[in-house]
Automatic annotation (TrEMBL):
It comes from the Eukaryota. It comes from Solanum stoloniferum. Keywords: ATP-binding, Ligase, Magnesium, Metal-binding, Nucleotide-binding, One-carbon metabolism. The keyword ATP-binding applies. Its EC number is 6.3.2.17. Mg(2+) binds at residues 99, 168, 196. This is Folylpolyglutamate synthase.
């Protein structure tokens, strides 16, 4: 049933939900329609987490779990993906909890490298949800959305008796739901930068203080090279808690025996170095290894190399040809997806995109392609081949962008534009769209069918972009507010067009416009960078992989 049909019959018949959709409705009921910086909700009291753990009878199981806990602004998800892949390749039964999900909430809970199956998810979900529902009071209300998911992860990992649980902090560290862990085996702090400042503070020192909240007395911790201001705070907090804090060196590519990391981009060598340190320490502290891999950095065990080469993470430096256009002709519309959303990660994303579209990221000798191992659908190889076939074609670059209103586009967009320009990449048009999924719903019903979407934020992004591009070209920027054309073309209904950009009322309309553009220009190929928001990346994946 289409959303339109479902909407028309809303008053008479309520559509029957599948068991999974019922669970998504229940999960959606836990989302508070409020900014994350608002502390007025009773469910935000941190100490409630310990009541929740008692309700789920998880106190002892969590104490027994052999946990690796990772915080950071950028790279914590990648570090966790590398860590899980290494330990799985060492033969351990792994549990990985990450956020956010891109297409399906089950992506947050991975067992042995695979999303938890629907059957197990539903069994654990209702066990936890019903228990909370039965015992909810004014003093201990239902847990909020992210807290529930973190508690569910603990339940899943305890029941599945994983050998190692790798937990990615959701936000900050000190007051994150994952931080109920009192005795992890080892902690990691990935690169720090400016993000979520409305909650974590305005200086790198304040942000570092929040992240260091995951340090536990006497538990070893690793970080990566950090700005001085952040490093000083991390060292101070570590010293207070008798934590042995070490800086993990970035991985030297030469130890990979000619293979590539499973995750793209030079910055991944930093995350891989941190993952190696975390895994080595975990193996030593759990009595699984005699060798100190950290001192043997000139040689990595084969399981480590395989783990690093086959690690996979959706929405980070991911290349996906459009399935619809692909079926019509080869490689004419390719999406380059990266969930970068901080100023520093804009630089990294721009560099990756600029090199990737020039075909510099060859994957032919990667472990994944040599061993037919690819968890994320179309491999980079298939993209390379279609690029090769299309190499006689001229290419055009587009930007598809949105970011949350708590982020500062005045910081993000200039970084992106200038970093791309420094690599000789200039976007023909920037397309700004609202996210398809709404923040207060999870599951298939989470896409908004509302035609009256407020586009004021996207128009703000457009204005910033036009000023930037005109500034770069040295044009007069005074009239950018008046360059809108009302568009009559059907595929662009309601689009607001400027010289260098368009605002579309929805993502499907923007993607249809891109497809029509490609169809009209058979001799060219379109390369679309999708960035600014992991939610946007997830929405695009959902649409182009159909």
């Amino acid at each position: 049933m289409s959303q339109g049909e479902a909407g028309e019959g809303k008053d008479e018949i309520k559509p029957t939900l599948s068991p999974y959709e019922e669970a998504m409705e229940a999960l959606s009921s836990l989302i508070t329609k409020r900014s994350r910086a608002d502390k007025s909700n009773k469910g935000d009291k941190y100490e409630l987490l310990f009541d929740y753990i008692k309700i789920l009878e998880l106190e002892e199981p969590i104490k027994k779990m052999k946990i690796i806990h990772v915080a950071g602004t950028k790279g914590k998800g990648s570090t966790c993906a590398f860590t899980e892949s290494i330990l799985r390749n060492c033969g351990f039964h792994t549990g990985l909890f990450t956020s956010p999900h891109l297409i399906d909430v089950r992506e947050r809970f991975r067992l042995d490298g695979m999303d938890i199956c629907e059957e197990k998810f539903l069994a654990y979900f209702w066990w936890c949800f019903d228990r909370f529902k039965e015992r909810a009071t004014d003093e201990v209300p239902m847990p909020t959305y992210f807290r529930f998911l973190a508690l569910l992860a603990f339940k899943i990992f305890a029941a599945e008796q994983v050998d190692v649980a790798i937990l990615e902090v959701g936000l900050g560290g000190k007051y994150d739901a994952t931080n109920v862990v009192e005795n992890p085996v080892v902690c990691g702090i990935a690169s720090l930068g400016y993000d979520h400042m409305e909650i974590l503070g305005n200086t790198l020192g304040q942000i570092a203080g929040e992240k260091a909240g995951i340090f536990k007395r006497g538990v070893p911790a690793f970080t990566v090279p950090q700005p001085d201001e952040a490093m000083l705070v991390l060292e101070e907090k570590a010293s207070d808690l008798d934590v042995h804090l070490e800086v993990a060196a970035p991985l030297d590519a030469s130890v990979l025996s000619g293979l590539h990391l499973g995750l793209e981009g030079e910055h991944q060598y930093i995350n891989a170095g941190l993952a190696i340190a975390l895994c080595s320490t975990w193996l030593q502290r759990t009595g699984h290894v005699e060798i100190n891999y950290l001192e043997e950095m000139t040689h990595l065990p084969e399981q480590f190399v395989k783990g690093l080469a086959t690690a996979a993470l959706q929405g980070r430096a991911q290349i996906v040809p459009d399935q619809l256009i692909e079926s019509e002709s080869s490689g004419d519309l390719v999406f380059y997806l990266d969930g970068a959303h901080s100023p520093e990660s804009m630089d990294v994303c721009a560099k990756w995109f600029s090199l990737a579209i020039k075909g510099d990221y060859k994957q032919h000798n990667s472990y994944a392609s040599n061993h037919g191992h690819n968890e994320l659908g179309p491999s980079h190889d298939s993209v390379e081949i279609s690029h090769h076939e299309a190499s006689k074609k001229s290419s055009t670059q587009f930007l598809l962008f949105n970011c949350m209103s708590v982020r500062d586009p005045e910081l993000l967009l200039p970084r992106l534009l200038r970093a791309c320009a420094s690599h000789g990449v200039h976007f023909q048009k920037a397309l700004f769209v609202p996210n398809v999924s709404v923040y207060y719903k999870v599951g298939t019903s989470a896409s908004t069918a509302d035609t009256q979407v407020d586009l004021s934020w996207q128009l703000t992004l457009q204005r910033i972009w036009e000023n930037l591009v005109c500034g770069e070209k040295g044009n007069d920027v005074k009239n950018t507010d008046h360059t809108y054309e009302e568009v009559t073309d059907d595929s662009e209904k309601g689009a607001q067009s400027c010289e260098n950009s368009k605002v579309f009322p929805s993502l499907p309309v923007a993607i249809n416009w891109l497809r029509d553009t490609v169809r009209k220009n058979r001799s060219g190929r379109s390369q679309v960078l999708v960035t600014g928001s992991l939610h946007l990346v997830g929405d695009v994946l959902r649409l182009v992989k159909k």
